[in-house]
Amino acid sequence: MTTSTQPGVLATAPAGTAAARATDLSKVYGTGETQVVALDHVSVEFLRGEFTAIMGPSGSGKSTLMHCMAGLDSVSSGSASIGETELTTLKDKKLTRLRRDKIGFIFQAFNLLPTLNALENITLPLDIAGRKTDRAWLDQVVDTVGLSGRLKHRPSQLSGGQQQRVAVARALASRPEIVFGDEPTGNLDSRSGAEVLGFLRNSVRELNQTVVIVTHDPVAASYADRVVFLADGRIVDDMAAPTAEKVLERMKGFEAKGRTS
């Protein structure tokens, strides 16, 4: 993946290979003296079958970028697309349907229903949508996240790592075009976090899933194929084949700049 030398503008991918795309996307909160520019003309693409991490200092706009690209927040200008569908032109009903059918979500909070067992939590979005479960795909997802022996257990009978694996399986069960994760290992210990990240990476490699996560953790970012760095609402770097050491060194650069600015 090549990167333009102009901050905030990345080279585009070949047609049809982008699972999600932002074009000249801006997000502004407030007006006048209270105005905050969270995203400043960001253009980026997330390729199909790739695991991407979004990183940056606190307040850099990383979560805002994910929320806008996932249709969870509106944009002030520019556009965001999932596949060939532009989100900014959709009415609420169609946007809700697109999020349900084409996007998977994983958050810090597991958001599991305590009265349902693991399997029922995994298939809940499909059940609500009235969609038939693809049993072969579901079995493959369950096997990938290592939950085959825990499907009858309720959340209270599962560890934190196992609960997040249920959340990962739930996100994958509908076979979405892309899965977004907002600090998906933020509430887990290092061992459980490593398990979940490994499962996400396996879902990309074995199931050809597309995964984008926001994280502050260099170790978590090292599981990705690529790391996109934001600062002050703009993309400032794009790292392929990241390691925890390389990511940490890059993040230290942001901290040093913050101390001298």
What does the model show?
The chain contains eight helices and ten strands. Helices cover 36% and strands 25% of the residues. It has 261 residues and is α/β, with parallel strands linked by helices. The strands form two sheets. The chain has a six-stranded mixed beta sheet, with helices on both faces. A hairpin with a 6-residue loop joins strand 1 and strand 2. Helix 3 (118-129) packs parallel to helix 5 (160-173) and helix 5 runs parallel beside helix 6 (190-207). Residues 1-9 have low confidence and may be disordered.
SS strand fraction? 15-25%
Radius of gyration: 18 Å
Number of helical regions: 8
Largest sheet: 6 strands, mixed
Shape: globular
What is the structural class? Answer: alpha/beta
Strand line-up of the largest beta sheet: 6-7-8-3-9-10
Pattern of helices and strands:
EEEHEEHEHHHEHEHEEH
* Quantity of strands, as a count: 10
Ends apart, CA distance between termini: 31 Å
Roughly what percent helix?
25-40%
Mean pLDDT: 88
Unreliably modeled segments: 1-9
